[in-house]
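EI: anyone free to look at a 403-residue chain?
SC: sure, send it
EI:
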Amino acid sequence: MKNTALFLLVFLPGASVALAQAYRFGHVWDGEKMMDNAVIVVEKDRIQSVGAAGVAGAIDMTKYTALPGLIDVHTHMTYVFDMNQISAAGRGAAVVYLSRDNARKTLETGVTTVRNLGASNYEDIAMRDLINAGLMEGPRMYVSGYGLQITRGGRGGPQTADGPAEVMKVVRQQIGAGADVIKMYGSTGSGQDVTGFQTFTYEEIKAAVEAAHAMGKTIAIHTYGPPAARDAVRAGVDSIEHATDMDDDTIAEMARKKIFYVPTIDHNRYYVDNAKLLRYPPSAIGPLNDYIARNLETAKKAFRAGVRFAMGSDVVYTMFGENTRELGWFVKAGMTPEQALKTATVNAAELLHHENELGSLKPGYVADICAVEGNPLEDIDVAIYKVRWVMKAGRVVVDKTRP
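SC: here you go
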């Protein structure tokens, strides 16, 4: 099959002649419904039309099902595994350079947009800007800069804050540095540490929420345990990351306030599978597996209660390329494959406040398209393991359709 670009002269009522490209897919899932034998016409970086109307000479993609470009709302794009050969003084610049591989592998999963929650030295801001300028290949990035933390062991930094006033100040500093979203570590827990001891108080979380929202930004709260999740929900955050063992009242309030849940179940699976590589002791495996089981049970409860989910991988180190495996856990939690796909498309776009241009295949939306081999509405593994072609903003960035 030849998959060469075809340019069409498309005449629109009341408009001048426009240069466009047309692609005919065997199936198109636009974020709401599945269409058979449908054509997507792309003009520059936008979708011009989607439908079954005949377009002569459209590029033949009938072997594939088109999906909206996927969105991963919890990444760490600048987490590079081995930095031993780089001096401490040069690591900031080196990290951005080495993160190109993370970006490429993310695109290959069909993910064309990410929300990056936590980076040192504003490396994610630099990476976002390089991608936006066309100087680096990668997914569209919405970034947090540093994640807010409490002072520990007498050590501070540009991300540390103690008390509501300092929290508000640091939130404003992150936004002033260029952050698109605020990240706050509301509890302990990371890597092999599966504790969930609350760090910031309710008053501090509330201050962060108010400061972020006053400046038009969303806020995500990291919490491994239920206490910080409960206070974050009370404070009116936009998303809860990881939280396990949440009580029924907290879950019901999340549903009522339409707060998104980003459970990131699969990232602990990654830690278990790569415990030796990450130099975790054998004693870490049991607690990690226990946390995975409890996290899944919490996700089941939340889904049954009507909480809205968004897909986040919490991808780090050598996990890039596995960004969408979280979708399989969502099906285990009780979702249909289509409901799981919505967490990585329409839901995720809404969490980003870009639901009018991302997460769907509709006229006027950004031309982010992921082509898979098979029917992902019947088998979610198709969306996870059979991505063959990816377009970002009207440009093909991954093409595995040729031998």
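EI: The domain at 70-351 is CATH 3.20.20.140 (TIM Barrel).
SC: 👍
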